[in-house]
Amino acid sequence: MLPRIKAVTPGKNYNLILIFNNGEKRRFNVKPYLSTGVFVDLKKQSIFNAVRPFHGSIQWPDGQDFCPDMLYEESVPI
Length: 78
What we know:
CATH superfamily: NE0471-like N-terminal domain
Radius of gyration: 11 Å
Oligomer: single chain
Largest sheet: 4 strands, antiparallel
Number of strands: 7
Strand content: 25-35%
Number of domains: 1
Number of helices: 2
CATH architecture: 2-Layer Sandwich
Strand order of the largest sheet: 1-2-3-7
Order of helices and strands: EEEHEEEHE
Structural class: alpha+beta
């Protein structure tokens, strides 16, 4: 099992700063997903900024989320 998310901070240009339970800090770019399905609403900055950690992953108020394994594998160390 890959590390799980402990904290998330919305960043500039639709990037998320993720802190994993193994201490790693990584950046995940949400921009490629903003034209797809439920993620379209995240284009509104106030909604994007409402992201919170949720059961080892992240979630927005309207239920949009990403798989925690995908967040780890597709994010880059910072």
